[in-house]
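Example S7 (structure tokens).
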């Protein structure tokens, strides 16, 4: 049995039975291995831009196949596929039901999806786990017509990670004018994150402390220029939004 971290388990939980999937940036390949071993996905694609990482994933899969065979269990032919290359370029149009892109920066994830929008919209479902720039990623997706189905949180060590589940639009040429700029706090911390319960409260409280620290440092800058005042207003608005999410507790 393949054991996953809580982060990868949450990602796996967003993939339904009999969906095929591609893991872009697969590294050790543990997520697709788990999904195949549990019989959730009849076909998985391990993709990575690093030849060494992909080889590592392939070795792990081969070890699992051997161990399984020793217990009298075998995988169907074609369960595992390997692709060396950049992002979704290695996939064919509509080749899988779900694309997972996890453990990368939000801007890089945006660039991977935007690289070929015709292909991106043919791959209908994405499970994304950005390491940073979550807000910019959400903004980019929404601007291009992707629908955010779920905003989830999971603890990993000292970090609390975002997991974003989205469905692709029907067309590649959609451009939506959004009500806020890409650096708005509403994209970084959407209101429905509160559905994650106590973890969301901790996540928002962390963000709130950080915003207050920045605002306090601005107040110590000496000469108060128009630029400083603009920044202070920006961070006060962010603090108000986060405080309101917490019910005015902080």
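Recovered sequence:
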């Amino acid at each position: 049995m393949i054991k996953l971290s809580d982060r990868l388990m949450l990602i796996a939980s967003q993939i339904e039975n009999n969906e095929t999937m591609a893991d872009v940036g697969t590294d050790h390949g543990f997520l697709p291995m788990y999904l195949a071993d549990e019989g959730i996905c009849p076909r998985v694609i391990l993709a990575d831009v690093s030849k060494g990482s992909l080889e590592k994933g392939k070795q792990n899969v081969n070890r699992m196949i051997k161990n399984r065979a020793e217990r009298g269990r075998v995988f169907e032919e074609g369960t595992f596929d390997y692709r060396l290359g950049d992002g979704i370029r290695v996939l064919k149009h509509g080749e899988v039901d779900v694309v997972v892109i996890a453990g990368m920066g939000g801007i890089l994830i945006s660039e991977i999806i935007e690289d070929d929008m015709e292909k991106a919209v043919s791959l209908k479902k994405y499970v994304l786990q950005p390491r940073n720039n979550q807000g910019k990623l959400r903004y980019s997706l929404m601007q291009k017509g992707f629908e955010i189905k779920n905003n989830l949180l999971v603890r990993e060590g000292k970090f609390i990670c975002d997991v974003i589940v989205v469905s692709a639009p029907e067309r590649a040429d959609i451009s939506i004018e959004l009500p806020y700029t890409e650096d708005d706090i509403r994209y970084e911390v959407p209101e429905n994150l509160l559905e994650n319960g106590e973890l969301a409260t901790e996540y928002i409280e962390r963000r709130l402390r950080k915003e207050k620290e920045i605002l306090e440092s601005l107040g110590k800058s000496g000469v108060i220029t128009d630029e400083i005042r603009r920044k202070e207003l920006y961070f006060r608005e962010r603090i108000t939004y986060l405080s309101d999410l917490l019910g005015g507790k902080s």
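Notes on this example. DSSP finds nine helices and seven strands in the chain.
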